[in-house]
Specification:
heterodimer, A: 115 residues, mainly beta, 6-stranded mixed β-sheet, 5-stranded antiparallel β-sheet, B: 116 residues, 7-stranded mixed β-sheet, 4-stranded antiparallel β-sheet, 55% strand
Chain lengths: 115, 116
């Protein structure tokens, strides 16, 4: 079974600083990877997804993620943090299961942005 | 209007009570899912449904049941609620017409359930 590990349950950055949220996966087949964001009191919103077309994936709100097969990683980055980026971020891998694509989620990383 | 809605948004109940959480979607998707979210555990799948007549257990279905009343409606029931079912519950949808491992799941805003 596939698994997803998010390093760091809490990350704190200053406004304007680089955001780096780490995600490593285990997969016996080529992975399809997702990053979701959960703002306070809201559901999960798709930030971006990797579908094997390009290793560098650009998403919404200035976020991007790079798929590195050799490192089994899919880290999420943003060059300059904004206060509105404060949220919880989830990495997920898609696993074929019984005719549908099961999403395996990481435990999440809560991002705090301070002035 | 939101594409995936959940009612209620918050609910406090007592041990042993029957609770129903409802999910409706206007996206026209055929697949629907129920997850629970616990701090430090991410989201775990409870049940999923490919269409009205096709319902499947997820990884943590014990203590829960579901009903797919129509393509657009998928309800989650706790027949006899217990405190360890206190969690945030999410409904999600996806579109089989765009099948493949890249199909995206779209989430509702969640229901915060507290069982005392």
């Amino acid at each position: 079974a596939q698994s997803v590990t998010q390093l760091g349950s809490h990350v704190s950055v200053s406004e304007g600083a680089l955001v780096l949220l780490r995600c490593n996966y285990s997969s016996s087949v080529p992975p399809y990877l997702f990053w979701y964001v959960q703002y306070p009191n809201q559901g999960l919103q798709l930030l971006l997804k990797y579908t094997s077309a390009a290793t560098l994936v650009k998403g919404i709100n200035g976020f991007e993620a790079e798929f590195k097969k050799s490192e089994t990683s899919f880290h999420l980055t943003k060059p300059s943090a904004h206060m509105s980026d404060a949220a919880e971020y989830f990495c997920a891998v898609s696993e074929p299961s019984g005719g549908y694509n099961k999403l395996i989620f990481g435990a999440g990383t809560r991002l705090a942005v301070h002035p | 209007d939101a594409d995936v809605t959940q009612t209620p948004r918050n609910r406090i109940t007592k041990t042993g009570k029957r609770i129903m959480l409802e999910c409706s979607q206007t996206k026209g998707h055929d697949r629907m899912y129920w997850y629970r979210q616990d701090p430090g555990l991410g989201l775990r799948l409870i049940y999923y449904s490919f269409d009205v007549k096709d319902i499947n257990k997820g990884e943590i279905s014990d203590g829960y049941s579901v009903s797919r009343q129509a393509q657009a409606k998928f309800s989650l029931s706790l027949e006899s609620a217990i405190p360890n079912q206190t969690a945030l519950y999410f409904c999600a949808t996806s579109d089989q017409k765009r099948r493949g491992r890249t199909d995206t799941q779209y989430f509702g805003p969640g229901t915060r359930l507290t069982v005392l």
